[in-house]
Write a structure and sequence with these properties.
- The protein has 157 residues and is α+β, with helices and mostly antiparallel strands.
- It has a single domain, classed as Hotdog Thioesterase (Thiol Ester Dehydrase, Chain A).
- 22% of the residues lie in helices and 35% in strands.
- The protein is built from 3 helices and 7 strands.
- Strands 1, 2, 3, 4, 5, 6 and 7 form a 7-stranded mixed beta sheet that branches.
- The protein starts with 11 loop residues before the first strand and ends in a 7-residue tail after the last strand.
């Protein structure tokens, strides 16, 4: 999947400042830390839309696991730079969903990285995929509107 590069599609933004222990021997942010910044963006996004993000929710009637994380690096970030991390849902299917991230420097808008993170909703008793909760779909739909492709389970009569 190609990540969205149009900032107008992203309705959620947080800022992250690069800390000294996040840079490598080249003086740039270590590649793994960009994934952490995107993860912070996803968690804050979920909190903002009203999704329950705590230990009870994670160990409750369902659980969500990250199954794939893609990142495209565009330019390095350095110690003490302030970064904007934009987050959005691109789709929700039957038992999976994808969230995208875009990262850029606050001072000049230079693109730093793009991310697509794929998740699967699991039944905690069996660890098998189960349909994404309808209430969760509604939270995302209210926030994203038409900018997210949401598949609703078909109802059998």
């Amino acid at each position: 999947m190609r990540p969205v590069t149009d900032k107008r599609k992203f309705k959620h933004t947080i800022q992250v400042r690069v800390r000294n222990y996040e840079v490598d021997w080249q003086g740039i942010v270590h590649n793994g830390n960009y994934l952490l910044y995107f993860e912070v963006g996803r968690v804050e996004y979920l909190k903002r839309i009203g999704a329950k993000v705590d230990l009870n929710a994670i160990q409750g009637k369902s659980k969500v696991v990250l199954v794939r994380n893609e990142i495209d690096y565009k330019s390095p970030a350095y110690f003490d730079e302030l970064l904007n991390v934009y987050t959005r849902f691109s789709y929700i299917k039957n038992s999976s969903f994808a969230m995208e991230g875009l990262m850029e420097k606050v001072d000049n808008g230079q693109r730093v990285a793009f991310n697509v993170a794929y998740h699967v909703w699991l039944d905690p008793a069996t660890n098998r995929p189960t349909p994404v909760d309808d209430e969760f779909r509604k939270l995302v739909q209210r926030f994203e509107g038409a900018d997210c492709e949401i598949h609703w389970p078909s109802v059998e009569i």
